[in-house]
Design a protein that fits this description.
The protein has about 200 residues and is α+β, with helices and mostly antiparallel strands. The protein has nine helices and four strands; from the N terminus they run H-H-H-H-E-H-E-H-E-E-H-H-H. It is about 50% helix and about 10% strand. Helix 3 crosses helix 5, helix 4 packs across helix 5 and helix 4 packs parallel to helix 9.
Length: about 200
Amino acid sequence: MAQQKESVVTRERLAKGVGYQQWVETIDRNQERFKENYEGTQISDDDASAFRELAARPNGPATCLALGEAWCPDVFRGLPVMAHIAEAGGMELRIFFRDQNKDIMAEFLKNGEHESIPALVFYTKDHRYITHWIERPALANEQMSELQNLTAPLRNPDISPEERQKLIKAYVDFQNGPVWAGWRDATVREIRELLEQHTG
């Protein structure tokens, strides 16, 4: 999807976004989830080198605008990954709350209609739009049924409190387990490939 010609994201507007640590201190929930995903993300030496090289290109990514909300699992998994990528590549990360910035979100709708988050938008050092990435990696979409199988029984009003607690624990274990770790790794790969395609 092409960005609208007249973007609401001016250089001045972009500068108003907050950094990752300030975001985590500002949000009203899920700080622990952000921390777990940040600590669980590993950027390989090869990927770190690639992100630094990409950022050093004349048309490379200097800044990433991120739209998110703290309640969203895709955000508390994906935004910490982007924070690591920004650190590895020497990029500036500027985060905005989606629901307070619907005009920005309108430019980066998934499939032109969904306000999916996180939305990660990359700009050059002279504030030219490069590309954007939305929501979750393809691998997560492929494996989403595993998560749905865990959460579906929670919608049953007749479920016992004990069973509910057991399912919630299984869901939290899923978030901290190898499947979500794989989704974080896939996010790194997809963002690297996307930037290589658009800055080559």
